[in-house]
């Protein structure tokens, strides 16, 4: 257990920062926890830190202690509208690495214009929950290899849940896929949250891009949601991904907010 003592302001008790677990730090003022910090390692190896502090000096002291204990680079996520949070991280050395747009996506095909969209010749859409697990996992591996060889997986959405080493498809029932002949060539992952389902990933094999495969997957999934009475879904898109932003902007999706990924090198 690592402990660091920090002086407090004139009206505050001294703050003690203690590393209580491998991935967790506490800020204590006397016997009261006045802040906590934690760390998560993403599947691509990046280390993300987060801090929740409700004491005037605890935030900066937690960051200082965590930076001393952890290897660089370190990453964090903030809501771009939260200027105070963004400033706090910037004051301790974090800078903007990228921006992700949060979209609200209508499901009504009369609004999206996807009612007439059909898969390209030779492609069929396999609904979520019906994909064969073996070919789905093979597609996921192939897509990851293609992405790593080009833009890198770090360019993909930042909100990726930690997963066991080597496991990239945790719940096959969340995936709709595009099938061609004896292989899967594209996928869409949907987290079926009751209030606001979230589109987590749309990806198509390199040889099948620019044929309308992604639009066909999106048309199928959004249409299915609409038929169950769900009026909209959510999606996050890296602002540098021109194809994805054009796809969502083109179907009437609305940019609701934006998140910033910050890095300290």
From TrEMBL:
It comes from the Bacteria. Residues 123-265 form the N-acetyltransferase domain. InterPro entries: Acyl_CoA_acyltransferase, GNAT_dom. This is GNAT family N-acetyltransferase.
